[in-house]
Amino acid sequence: MTPQIAFLINQALQSLSVGNFKTAELYLGQALKLNPKNTHTLRFLGVVAAQQNQWEKALDFLNRSIKADPKNAIAYSNIGNVFLGLKEYSSAITNYEKALTLNPNDAEAWSNKGNALATLKRYDEALEQYDRALALNPQYAEAWSNKGNALATLKRYDEALEQYDRALALNPQYAEAWSNKGNALNEIKNFEQALSAYQQSIVINPYQADVWSGVGNSLTELKNYEAAMAAYEKAISLDPQYAEAWSNKGNLLGQLKRYKEALACCKQALDIDEGYVPAWSNQASYQAEMQDHISALDSANKALSLDASYAKAWLNKGSALNNLSQYADAIACFDRAIELRPDYADAWANKGVALYDLLQLDESIQCCNKAIEIEPGHIEAHWTKSFSQLMLGNFDEGWSNYEYRWNRKDADQHPHSRITPLTSLANLSGKKILIWPEQGYGDILQFARYIPKLANMGADVYFEVQEALAPLFQGQYPCNVIIKGSDTQEIDFQLPLASLPLLFKTNLNSIPTDVPYIQVNPSKIAEWKNKLPLSKEKLNIGIACSGNINFDLKHGNKRPIPLAYFSELAKQHNLFLIQKEIRESDQETLQNLDMIHPLGELINNFEDTAAIVENMDLIISIDTSLVHLAGALGKKVLVLLSWCPDWRWLAKGSTNPWYPSATVIRQPSAGDWEAVMRDVKALV
């Protein structure tokens, strides 16, 4: 090489070191004119092109460099880097091997070969390459960091963190190692330390979109949602084509229940990179939240067609199938997710849900226990386990796990968290205690039986209820009935109504069954007796075939029974439809069954409903507030249950400890309402 060419190459390298590609190309172009076959000039032109992602141009120069000098090992290594950039990993490995055949002491080539192998998920081989690189150059910080990445992918996080620390000890200004350390800390849920590592990386280089996205992930887990959103926005502003940042922003929006916006972020990610598997998988999750389970299944299948080893996509596919009542297929998907990730607590918990839906309660508990063993605070596992335990009558443990409802992602905000919670029944005399509603009308009617028990302990009870229930409970118990949203400034303690069974340590043998525990004003009963077209010859039967339409949609419409099933009963008896909402299909049935009297538009509140119930000879209803009201009034009621009912009806039996006047009729198999109605006909 002539001194003039050496000078020009040196000038080019100085320009390249500050990212001035055009100036570097000018110097190298001048050198090339002096000697068009100089292997070094050609190689550096290839390197400059590669750094600008001009892959074809880079390969042309590098191949010309090798033609000029077939033993140019570093040129083969550079070609490997180009193929790495093109995601042609096998070709990259081939060229690294050629480089290492010519120069087995090239630590960088060993490390880069390791990167290619790691991308192909050949992690054990990758680790061997990193070790070869480090044996040659123990001061090679990048190889330490790359080795850490491979170990982190293998979930060997403690070892990975050791490698990152080795890299940072060698080069404290190594921004990527700080970022990688943050990623590993995120994976082991050490979010505050992860955030600290990311911030170190940002101090060194504030223009890394991937690091800002990592910051967003940490902040999301720390529930600092506003700051997390700002971090994702920063990542996207730095690189609008960064699919992962769009997907992660969608994940945050999903946690905030802003599902339409979350789906829009998934679309952005997939417009950028149609093959980005996490975005397809996340999209499935948000579609499921919007009750679009068919689309969710399609999205999960798309994710798996791209990467059949992506455990989260198997989880989301299983969830979609479970929501479509395809339980066996759902369980197979959860099993596949567990096979891929034996420590995948979410997969174990979701399998527990599917087994619960199949009424395989002991097996469901086992799966939930496995999830809890992996992740002791796993909210959904405790929540699902509580249902199985309560349905089996194991109230001692069931009530405790039932408290996890407050930590669920779709839990309502605690409206009275500023007031001290009631944790003991001791020394209640004179204390002002707020008992407030958290769930549906049926739950309030079921657990209202505890209010007089609390008042009899000397407590000054404030019973908060919805406006529709207030007239019914006004004057019912020795307590103050207040409307939801009333001022509660002077209260000493508070407790949600459904936590009272835990406070009273209720078991199957100690359920308060002083029925009736709700009384109806005789004048109100008489008022409705005059309003209703009651029959003296036939049984007057109050019925309900569906409840809250949105609730039923969210739960797969397993609870409602088509009104048409009551047509035969309507020919023999005097039927009254006691429900506010009527499904469209049932409205059509009503038009053809003029012997059923719809009362929904006449009912103003639950005092009206209770008076109507008292005028009936019998109530026949699915699991809505009507059966709870009838049970609380001591009225004879037939409860029509789907295959997997709510926990309060227990797993089997035709009687129920909460309501002595109730007869429970269960589907013998999923969806079999015909068998249920045969039993109804026999009993009536």
TrEMBL record:
It comes from the Bacteria. PROSITE patterns: TPR, TPR_REGION. TPR repeats lie at residues 39-72, 73-106, 107-140, 141-174, 175-208, 209-242, 243-276, 311-344, 345-378. The keyword Lyase does not apply. The keyword Repeat applies. It holds the Pfam family TPR_16. Keywords: Repeat, TPR repeat. InterPro entries: TPR-like_helical_dom_sf, TPR_rpt, Ycf3/AcsC/BcsC/TPR_MFPF. This is Uncharacterized protein.
